[in-house]
Write a structure and sequence with these properties.
The structure is a single chain. The protein is built from three helices and two strands. It has helices at residues 2-19, 31-34, 40-44; strands at 54-58, 71-75. Strands 1-2 form a two-stranded parallel ribbon. The two termini are 31 Å apart.
């Protein structure tokens, strides 16, 4: 799965590079994709100095990602059902 995510990041970086020349461009992506250390900025090389990475993080989710972001917006945690529940057999 990590390889697939890294590939997506590399492709998004190439699209930004190709279409963002001399213009302001915005990438809306998940928090992992915008992190400077593992996301799209990593694939932009020296061009990443011109970007500003904002992460929307849920309250209580930990601070692991904040160091790799330029700004953080804290939101309330979303209510989610268990995504694995559909695969569990009834007992």
């Amino acid at each position: 799965m990590a390889r697939a995510q890294f590939t997506r990041d590399a492709v998004m970086a190439e699209v930004l590079r190709r279409h963002g020349r001399g213009r302001c461009i915005v990438l809306l992506a998940g928090n992992g994709h915008v992190q400077r250390d593992i996301g799209v900025p990593r694939w932009l090389g020296g061009e990443s100095a011109r970007l500003f990475a904002v992460g929307f993080l849920e309250r209580g989710g930990g601070d692991a990602q904040t160091a790799a972001l330029d700004a953080v917006v804290v939101t309330e945690a979303a209510s989610r059902s268990d995504p694995c529940a559909v695969f569990r057999s009834p007992r």
